[in-house]
Structures are given as structure tokens and as C-alpha cells.
């Protein structure tokens, strides 16, 4: 029963590594298609593939939606405008009018990528494509993707604080009083951890619930749960963006 | 023998983690939804704003349950205490 989906320990050189996984009614948790580059670089093939697909799709949508702008917008431009308004209002309420425009691209990127990857798992019939190990699903149900997003958020608010406040940024750690220093430092580690687990857990839970229901009753019954999952994952994307904006706003206020 | 005990304890721990993680957020979400309904009944024109805030805060409470779920899943699928 030795199953590790975070850390790869027993490596064999130069071949696809199959992990020992646990089957829960035909659902595999923690099995990945490992693609090896050299000794120490291993990629989760299915995650990288689906996330590059999502990125390509988003790029295509944004290019098509924002080229040839009209006074009376067409469908794509309308959708792009709705998303822009939403992300702008999030950034504006969290960061205030003087700084929000600097960090709007970051927040919008996070929002679009998380939304696109969450929905790609449910809306695109990946299960039709068989791969040797693991299965194609939302990239955000791999903890490495969400960890990367969370660490990016952390780095962004650090650099935002240092850029806008200079060394005065570190005064934040001894406010409101000096003996809160350890708690303030720990908070910096808690923030990315909770961002990471929130997104990862929600998406994994969504997909597990759908998969369990599909294995019990294959038709009709899972559909409402899938719709609920779509809604929940869009809310998660909004929350990730809101929290990223809030963390940046907290630092630069 | 020891590994069987650890496995059994892990399964029980996973169940307890999910169960108790559902308890608090359940109460909290009930409170929040109740207050929101009260707010809408008192001031129906503010429904949109209340709904948005409610959904956001519900998702925050939900994330506490999800932490419990993550702990349970890692106990079941990636247990650090079993084997090498």
C-alpha cells in the first residue's frame, strides 16, 4: 500500500514509470503518465498536455475576441468584455484605484487559466482518449499545478510589496506589535498552502464525486452533479483570483 | 501486523477527518444562508449583492471541509506511515 502521488521515489532510468495505485471503482488517484527528461526532470505528461491545450484554447479565444473590436460587440467580444469587467471589479475592490491596473494582468491570467482548466476537465470528453497510465483530466486536479499557481501568487505579492514599498515592506511583519512576528512569518507559508489545497481539493472532489456516480449509475443521474461541479469550479476560479488580488492588496495598501 | 494496524487506523482517521470537517462548516454555512435569506426578505432589491457575497463566503467555508478531505485522501492514497 505504498502510494505516493506527491513525491516520486523509486526511479528507473529512461523508461516510463508506472506507479502503484489504488483503484476506487475504476478511478485512479495519483497515477500519472511520467515523461522523463534525463535523470532528474520528470513531467506529468497528461497534466502538461491538458494545460498546454487549455493555454492554446485561451490564447485563441482572447486573440479572436480582442482583434477586430466593434462598437456593437459580437459574441466572442461580448464574452471577453464580460470577463474583463468581472476581473477588473475584483482587482479594483481588492487593490484600490491607484494600483489595480499594475496587477490586473496577473489576476486575469490566474482567473482565466484556473477557470479554463477546471472546465476543461468536465466539458471536454477526455476519457475517449486512452493513455498508457493515468487519465486525461483537469490539470488543476494535479497538486503540482495548483502548487505552482499558489507559489506564483506568493512571489507576486512579495515582489509587489518590495517594488511599491521598498524595504519598508518588512515593517509589515512587526505590525501591530513585535511579538506577532512569528505569526506573521508563518502566515506567509499558510497563504500559498491554503490556496493550493483549496483549489486542488475542490477540483479533485468534484471529479471523484462525478466518477463515483458514473460508476454507480452511468446515465442521467450524474448530470446535475456535473452541472453543480461546473458552477463550483467557476466559483473556485473566482475565489483564487479574489484571494490573489486580496493578498496583493493587503501588502501594498 | 503493525502495518495492518496502521492501515486500519488510517481508514478510521480518514473517516473522522471528513466527518468532523463537515460538521463546523455545515453549521456555519447554515447560519450564513439563513442570514442571507433574512436579508433578502427584508430588502429584496439587494438580492444580487447578497447572493454574490453569500456564494463567495460559502466557498470559503467549503474550503475548510476540503482541507479535511485532502487529509483523508492523503491518508488513503498517499499514506506516509505505511511501508517504506
Describe what this molecule looks like in 3D.
- The complex is a heterodimer of chains A (253) and B (84).
- Chain A has helices at residues 45-66, 75-95, 100-123, 143-165, 181-216, 222-252; strands at 23-24, 27-28, 34-37, 41-44.
- Chain A is mainly alpha-helical and 253 residues long.
- Chain A has one domain (48-252).
- In chain A, the strands form 2 sheets. Chain A has a two-stranded antiparallel ribbon with strand order 1-2. A two-stranded antiparallel ribbon of chain A has the order 3-4.
- In chain A, a hairpin with a 2-residue loop joins strand 1 and strand 2 (27-28).
- In chain A, helix 3 (100-123) packs antiparallel against helix 6 (222-252).
- The longest helix of chain A has 36 residues, at 181-216.
- Chain A is globular, with a radius of gyration of 21 Å.
- Chain B has one domain (2-77): F1FO ATP Synthase (Up-down Bundle).
- Helices cover 86% and strands 0% of the residues of chain B.
- Chain B is built from 2 helices and no strands.
- Chain B has helices at residues 2-42, 47-77.
- In chain B, helix 1 packs antiparallel against helix 2 (47-77).
- The mean pLDDT of chain B is 88.
- Chain A binds chain B through residues 1-6, 21-22, 29-30, 194, 197-198, 200-202, 204-205, 232, 235-236, 238-239, 242, and chain B through 3, 7, 55-56, 59-60, 62-63, 66-67, 69-70, 73, 76-79, 82-84.
